[in-house]
Amino acid sequence: MLLSATKERIDFLPHYDTLVKSGMYEYYASEGQNPLPFALAELIDNSLSATSRNTGIRSIQIKLLFDDSHGKPAVAVIDNGRGMTSKQLNNWAVYRLSKFTRQGDFESDHSGYVRPLPVPRSLNSDISYFGVGGKQAVFFVGQSARMISKPADSQDVHELVLSKEDFEKKEKNKEAIYSGYIRNRKPSDSTHITSDDERFLHNLILEERDKESFTAVVITGVQPDHMQYLKNYFHLWTRQLAHIYHYYVHGPKGNEANAVTKDVSPFNNIDIQISMFEKGKVPKIVNLREIKDDMQTLYINTAADSFEFKAHVEGEGIVEGIIRYHPFLYDRETYPDDPCFPSKLNDDDDDDDCFIVEKGARGKRPIFECFWNGRLIPYTTVEDFDWCAPPKKRGLAPIECYNRISGALFTNDKFQVSTNKLTFMDLELKLKDKNTLFTRIFNGQEQRMKIDREFALWLKDCHEKYDKQIKFTVYKGVTTRTDLPSKRMQSPWTVYAAIEWDGKTYRTGQLVKTVKTLPIFYGSIEKFFLYGDHDGDIFATGGEVQIALEPQALYAEMKTIPISKLDRTVSDKAVKKYIEDEMARLPDKLSVTWPEGDELLPNETRFAGTPIGALRIEILNKKGEAMQKLPGTSHGGSKKLLVELKVILHSPTGNKEIISHISQHGGKWPYWFKKMENLQKLGNYTLKLQVVLNESNADTYAGRPLPSKIFKFTIIEGKPEKFSVGLLELPFRVGVPFNIPLELQDEFGHATQLGTGIKPILEASGLTLQYEEITAETKCVIKGVTAKGSINSCQGKNFNLKVTLPGLKEDTQIFKIRLQPGPPRQLKVKPDSDILKIENGTAFPFQVEVLDESGNITAQPKLIVHCKFLGASNLPVYSVDCSNAGTNILTGPVIHVQNIKKDQILKARIEILSCKDVPPVEKIIKLLPSSHVARLQVLSVDGQKAIQIKHQDEINWVAGDVMHNLIFQMYDEGEREIHVTPAVAEKIKVNWTPRINREQLIQGLLPDVKVPTSVKDVRYCLITYLDDHVSLESAFTVRPLPDEPKHIKCKLKGPNTLQVGEELQSEIDVMITDQYGNQVQTVTSACVNSLGVSGPGLDKSNLKITWQESTLTMRVKGIRFKPCLLGSKELCFAWREFSDFLRVNLTAGSPAKLQFVDWPELEKPVAVINGRELQKPLIVQLCDQWGNPSPEPNVKISLTKGNNLKIVPSNQQHKTDENGRANLGVISIHAPRGEHTLQLKASHGKTTLDCPIITLNVLPDPEKPVCLNVKYDKNASFPAGGTFPDFMVSVLSEDDNIIKNINPARISMKMWEAQSSGTRTPIDVTTFSCSKVKDDKEDGFFYFRDKVVPERVGTYSIQFTFAMDKTNMLSSDQIIVEVVPNDPVRLLPDSLPATPAVSNVRTLNSRTLVKDLYLHVMDEYNNHTGIDLVGRIIAKIKSPNEDDIEIPQFQGKVSTVEFPFDRGSAEINLVLAENSPGRDSTEYILVFEPDLPALKKPLEPYRLSFMFYNDFKKQQQMATLTRERDQLSQSIGVYRNWFDTTNQLVTEMKCQVKEAETRESHLKNELKKHQIELPQTNTLQYVDSLIKQKMLDQEGVMKQPRRTCTLPNYPKGNQDILGKIAHLAQIEDNEAAKVISWHLASDMDCVVTLTTEAARSIFDETQGRQQVLPLDSIYKKTLPDWNRPLPHLRNGKIFFRPIGNPVFARDLLTFPDNVEHCQTVFGMLLGDTIIIDNLDAANHYRKEVVKITHCPTLLTREGDRIRSNGKFGGLQNKAPPMDKLRGMVFGAPMPKLYSTLSGQIDLLQQYRAAVVKLDKVNKDLDLHLQSLNTPEMQKKKQELAEQEKNLKLIEQKLGMTPSDKVTESLLQPILLDMSDTPIPPKRMRRETVKKLYSSEEWISSPTKKQQQQQQQQLLQIPASELNGTARKRKA
C-alpha cells in the first residue's frame, strides 16, 4: 500500500496525431448517421471485456456530466471489471497494440490472449480487440482522457492522462511527446485534482472507496457539437446502443415481451446504465434493459414465426442466423419501421389521389443485420441469400411475403471486422462463396435438408397461418377509373358494394369517418374498388373506398381513399352529430373594428389622402363564435378562410379596382388590414370586405355566399398646398392692365379653391406692379395687374415675375413675361431748344420720339407725326411714319421766304393726329436771310493763322513743296461768308491742275499747288468763279524757297551684327534733309530731343543721342535688344513726323546653357533596358541664357556619370559644330537596376554653362546573360579517373530568369589544376563541351554528363563559361573539387629503383638487394592510396625459369621475409644471405606480395629483377653495365617519343590543309550559284571590295522609304513580353496592310505576353490603361488550322472558280520573331478572314461559298468589309485612308533584295575566312617540314641509332635477350613524368585519351610553340631520373 502518490514514467510509441486524430479519420464516413453512439460503443466494448470474468452483476455506467457548476463538460465510462495494472495501463496507451500482439516487452502485463469457448450467438464478451478503439473513441469525443483503474489484487489506484493540449505543448518545447506518467495513489485520494474545470472528479474519486476493482475512462474537452447531440437526441442514441448490445442485455433469444418467464441466464447480470446530469434539471437515467423500442425488440415482438439456420464457412467460421416473419393484418404490414431506413412514405403524407397497389413491407432495407461476437456491426448488412430472395417465377408463397421477413446473422471472431467495429471486411463474400454450407436448425437440431425448399415451405405456411385479409362482397362489375394519373393503373378495377373486415360489414350508404387523412373526412360510402378483373366475392389486401363527403350541402364532392383509412371505432351517432355541428359552424357575418382610429363611416365624404384606419375583422358563425376555417377542417388545407379587402373607384368609364388585399388568420394575429393612406383620386368609392376560401378564392361555398360587408364613401379635393400659373393673354404693355389666372392644387395635384384672406404678392426686378383684386372662385384670377418700368427696346424686355400666395406649402411661382412699351403718351422732339434757326432756302430736320407713360419709346400702327409751319405763306408741311420704331427724322421741302432782308420768326407745330391724348409740341423758327456770292478771297492757312493772298501777290514757298492749305472764301453782299455747296463748287475753276477735288472745294479748300523744285521757276496761279449772277477771279505768283525738313537719313558706320544683351559697336549718324535730299541748314542741336528710336525688342536703357555741330547730324549709340526672336531686326528712327529704317542682324547671346534637341521631358525618368541603346541620339544645342540657339563652335562638352553607370561609346568628350550643336550619338547604358543620372558639363570662356541632367530608369535586360547557375551533386566524391556527376548549367539574365534558346556550343566547361597563387585561369586548361540536352528536361538547361575526373590526385578548379560573343565570355564561379585516389590496384615504389646486381660474398653492400625502398599502394593512375590499410608485405625470390630449383635466400637463410604495412606504405630493406645458393650471372625476380585483409580484390605483387653473381668483381662490373643499360633505355624512349610526336604533327597539319582546301572549294561553288565569279589573282582584295559594295547596296535598300508602324512599342523589360500586336507582324501589300490594320484597329495597341503574370504586371504598372493578352489564357482548340485550304476548295477539288484573287488574311502576314506564338495570336484575331480584290468579287465569293459551308469575314483591297453574318456597307464597314490610321498600321517587311544581299555578304565573309585559313595552314606546314630537314634534326637521328646499337651490346654482355624496340618498362617513367607538363603531347594524348573522350569534347589543342617546348623538356631529362618497372597504361 502506497503511503503517498507516486509517478511512474511510461512511453507510448505513436505520433500524438495518430492518437488524437485517429478518431476523426478512422470513424467516420458515417453513412448519414451521427457516429457518436458507435464511439461510445467502443468504450462499452472495453467494459464488457473487463467485466467478462465477474461472477456477480456486471455494472457499466456512462455518466454525462454536463452540470457546469461542477466543472467543464465530461463523459465518464465506469465499469466494475477486473481493472488494469500500471503495465496494462501503459499497454493500453500504445496505439494498435492489440491483445494478440502483447508479447516480448508486454508479457509482464500477464495478458496472454486465450480464445473463449463457443457459446450461443457467440456472446463471449470478447469484443475489446485491436488496441485502437478506445483511443479513437476518446479523442473523437473529446480532447483529453483520464484513465483511472484499480486491479482486484492491488491496493493502489493507477491513473494516466492523455491530452491533446499536452502533446502539442511537448512538441513545441521539443520534449519527448510519446511519454508520460502513471500516477499511483490511494483510493479516494483526489488531492491532485486542482483545476476548477475538473471539480466533478472529486465525487467520482470518492466513489472508489468501496470498490474492489474498477476502471473509469473520464473524457474532458467534449466537442460542443457532440455535447449538443448527446443532450438533444438522448432517446435516439440510447435506443441505438440498446440495439447494438440487445443480445448481451436480453440474452440469446432477445427481448421477448410475450415470453411466459424470463430465462435465468448469465446475461441477466449485465447492467448498462446511462445517466445525464445538467444544471437545474432532474438527471435523466436509463437502463438499456428498459428500452422497448430498439429495432431488435421491435423485430422480435412483431414476428409471428421464425426460421433458424447455420452457415459453415471454410475454416472455423460459423454463422448462426434467424429469419422472422411479420404478417399482414387486414390493412397494414406489421413489419416495424426503422427511422434510418424508412420503408415507405408516412401514411399521413399520402396524397389523396396517390395510389399504390402493393407496397413492400421491408421496403429497400436488406434482410439481415450482422452481429460479431454478439455485438452489432452497424454498417454491414446482407441483402439476402439465393434461397431466401424473391423468386423470378411465382413460388409457393406470394411474392409480397418475401418482403415481410427480417433477419439477423451472428458470427464468431473468425470473421474480420474493421478496427472501429463499424464494418465486416469479408463476411458477405465468404457467405456467398459456393463452398458455404447452409443447414436449418429445427428444435435446436441441425437438419441436412435443402435449405431453399425448407424456407419456401415455411414462408408458405406463415402466409396461410398469419396473414389476414378483407372479403369483398356484392359484386357490381368492372370499371375504368379516369381520375388516376397513371394510364396503366386506370383499369381494370372491380366494383363492390360491401366488404367484411375483421368481423364487421361496411355497405353502400353507411356513414363513416376516416383516419390518417388530411383533413379527416366524414361521409357516406358510395362504392368499393379492388384492382384487377375479378368475378364475384374475393379475399384480398388493399382496395379503395369512395365516399361522398358530408354534409353534402357543404362539400358536394367525392373522395376515394384506401380502405385501411376507415375509422373502425366510430359510431353512426358520432358522425351524425358532427354533421349537425358542422352546419351550425358555417360562417355567417363579419365584425369590423378600427383599432387605430380613422374609422370609415358609411357614405362619408373625405379629403384626398385622409387615411382609412387599420381594420380588424372577425368572421362569426351563427353561434357568434369567431372562426378561421370552415367546419370539419382540423388542419389548413383548402378549407381555410381568408378575408379579401377591395376598394373600388366608380368612374364614368366604369368601376376600377384600386386596392385588393387578402388577409389570413395567424396563430397569434387576427384578420388585419393595415392603414390605407394612398386614396387620392377624387370620386365615389366602395370598400368591400369579402370572406373567401383559401387557394380557390371562391366567395361561395356549397352554393351559399360567404359573408361580406360594404362601405360607400366619397373622396373630394383637399386644401390648396401649391399652385401654378395658367395661360396668360399676350401682349403685356406698360400701363395696360392684364390678368394672371392661377390654378390651385391640393397635395395630390387636384384642382381646389383658394381660401379667403390670402393676398397675393407680385414682384419683378425693375418694375412697379399693382393689381386691383383676386377672385376666390373655382378659377382664381389676379385681376387688373399693371406694370410700369423702364424698357430699352420697343420690342420689349423679359422680366421674371414672382407670384407669392402666403400660407401655401409651395407658395411661390416665378414665370417670364415680355413687357412691351405702352400706348403713346408724349412726344419728344430734338433739338430740345424752343427757338431754332433755319437758313432761308433750306429744309430743317427734326428728331421725333413717341414715348409711353414711363418714358419708353413706343410704336404702334399708323403712328404718323405731322409738322405745320406758321408765320408766312406757302410754307411746306412735314410728316413722317414712326409705326415701326417709334422714332424717326421729320423733314421735308426747303423753307423759302421771298425778299427777306433780316431775320424772320416762324412757328412749327408738331403733333400726332391719330393720338389725341398725346399733347402737341411747338417750336419757334428764326429764318435767316440768304445771299449770292459777291466776293472771292484766297487765304493761306499756317497753323492757327490765315494769311490773305491778294490779287497778283507774289508768294515765296519751299521748293518742290506743295502749297497745301490754300482756302478760298466767298461773301454775299452783306459781307457774310457764303458756305460752298456742290453747286457752288461746280462753278469754281483753277489753272494749275485739271483735276479738282470737289469735296475739298465744298470745304473751302483749293487744290494743292506744286511748287517747282528749283527756286528759279515761278508759277502763275488763277482762280475763277462763274455763275448766273457774277464772274469773279483771283491770281497770285509762287516763287520757290529751300524746303523744310522732309526726310532723315541714317547711316551705319561699321558692322551691323550684335548679340542679344550686347550693345551695337557701330555708330549711327542721322541727317535731316528736304525731300530732294538737300540738307536742311536751319536745324540746331535742339533737334536731338525729337529723335526717337524704336524696334521690336529694343532695350532703350543705354540709348544715347548726341549732336554733331560740324556735320549738323545726330549720332546714336547704345543700341541693344531685350531677349526676343533672333534674326534681322528693323530699327525705326523717327524725328518729328519723319522716319527712316535700318536693319541690324541680332544673333544669340553668349552661350549660357545646354539644351537637348528633340528629347522627351526631363522631369520623368527615361526607361532604358540595361545594355540597350537609348531611343534617340543625344543631340545638345548651346543656348544663351534665354534659350536661343548659340552657334558657338568648339565648345567642349563632357558627360559625367556615377561609377556604377557605364555608357558606350565611352568617349565622353565632344565639341560643338559651327551651329553650336554636338551629337553625342546613340549611347547604350550599362548599369544596375534603378535610377541613374547623366550630367552634361560644358564651359564657355571662364563661365560654366547650365547643363541638363538626364534621369535614367534602368530596367534589367531579360536577354542579357549576367551569370551562370550551376547545379550538381555537391556531396559527390571525385575519385581519380572516375566520372564527374552531371552538371546542370543555366544562363540567367539580369532579371534572374533563365535564358532559353541558347546554342549549347556556346557553353563550355573548363578544368585545371588549382594554383596556389590567385584565381587566374592558367594556360593548361582542359575544355569540355556540352552534352546533348535531354528531351524531357526543361528548356534552358545544359548538361555536362560523363566527364572524366583527372587521373592525378589534387585540387582542381572547374569553371563554366558562356561565349556571349567572339570576345566576351561569361564565367561561373569556380568550383573547387578535390580529386581523391581511386581503388587500390597495384604496389609500386616511390621511384623505380635501378636493377640491383648482388653477390653472395661477405661484404654487406654487395649483398644488399634493396635499401630504404618504400613500397606504396597505388590506384590504376599511380596515385597514393590505401592510407587506412593495415597488413604486411611478403618478399620472395623467384626464378624466371620455373624448373630452376637453385634460388637465392635472404639473410638468415630464409626464403621469405615479412614487412609491416601501415598508412599506405611499407619500408623495405633486403640483404642476401652470405654464401646464398643461386646460379652465377643469372637474373632473378624479387616478388613483393601484399597481404592486406581489408581489400576485397587482391593487389598485383611488385616485381623487381636483379642479377646474382657468385663473384664480387664480376658483380661490380655487371652493376655498372646495368646502370648504363637503364640510362640508354630511358634516352632511347625519349628520342622515339619525340620523333613520333613530330610525325603526328605533320599528319595533322596535312589534314588541316586538306580540310581548308575542301571548304574553300565548296564556298567558291556556292558563290557561283549566286552569279559571283572570283578572279584567280588578288582574290582577297576583290572579295573585300565586293563585301564593301554589297554592304553599301544593303544600306541603300535599308534607307529606302517603307511603311512602318509608328505606334510606340511596349518596352520588353521581361522575356515574357512579346510586344504590341502592331509590331508582331509585317505585310508587304499596301492595300492589304491598310485593310487588315483597320480591321484589327481595336487590338493593335494590345500587348501580348506569354503568361498571365506578366500581363497582370503590365496592367498594374499602367493602372489598367494598357490592354493586354496573355497567351496562356487562349483556348487553342478553336484556333484555325494554318494550312487549311480556302472554303471554295473541298476535298482537294475546286467547287467553283472564284474571281478577285481570294487569299487568307493570315497568309499575307510575315513574322520577324516568335512565329509559333504569333500564329496563335493572329489565328485567334483573324480566324479564317479572307482578303479579296473588290466588293463585287467579295459578294460573288460569299454567294457561292454559303451554298456549301459557312463564309468567314471578307475584306477587300479597296477597303470594304463583309462580315461573317453577311452585313456590309456603312462607315463602320469601310476602311479610312492610310493617313487616317495615325501610324497604327502593320509595317512592311524588308525588300527581298535585302535578304538576298545579306546571304551574299555572309557567303563572301565565309569565303574570305576560308581563304585566309588555307593560306595560314599551308605556311605552317611548309615551316614545319623545313624544320625537319635541319642539321640538328639529322644529328638527333644519328644519336638515336648509336644509342640503340650500344644498348644491344650491353644487353648481350649482361646475358639478357636483346630487344628490337624499347621494352614496356621504358614507357612507364615517361608517362609518370609527363604528368607534370601542362598539356600532354598529341600522340600520347590521342592514344591514351581517345577512348575516354569523344572527339567533339576535346576542344583544347596545344600550340606549335608549346609542343616544341615540351619536346625540348623531354630531351633534357637527366637519365638518372628515369627508372622504373614496366606497367601498362590504361587506354
From TrEMBL:
Q: Which SMART domains match?
A: SMC_hinge
Which reactions does this protein catalyse?
Answer: ATP + H2O = ADP + phosphate + H(+)
Fetch the Gene3D superfamilies from UniProt.
1.20.1060.20, 3.30.70.1620, Histidine kinase-like ATPase, C-terminal domain
A GO molecular function assigned to this protein is:
DNA binding
Q: Which UniProt keywords apply?
A: Acetylation, Chromatin regulator, Chromosome, Coiled coil, DNA damage, DNA repair, DNA-binding, Hydrolase, Isopeptide bond, Phosphoprotein, Ubl conjugation
**Assembly information from the UniProt record:** Homodimer; homodimerizes via its SMC hinge domain. Interacts with LRIF1.
Q: What is this protein called?
A: Structural maintenance of chromosomes flexible hinge domain-containing protein 1
Which residue range or ranges hold the SMC hinge domain?
1615-1742
Which chain positions lie within coiled-coil regions? 1546-1573
- Sequence ranges of Low complexity compositional bias: 1906-1916
Regarding protein family, the annotation reads:
Belongs to the SMC family. Highly divergent.
**GO cellular component assignments:** chromosome
Q: Which organism is it from?
A: Bubo bubo
| UniProt-annotated location(s) | Chromosome
| GO annotation, biological process | chromatin organization; chromosome organization; double-strand break repair
Region (Disordered) residue ranges read 1893-1931
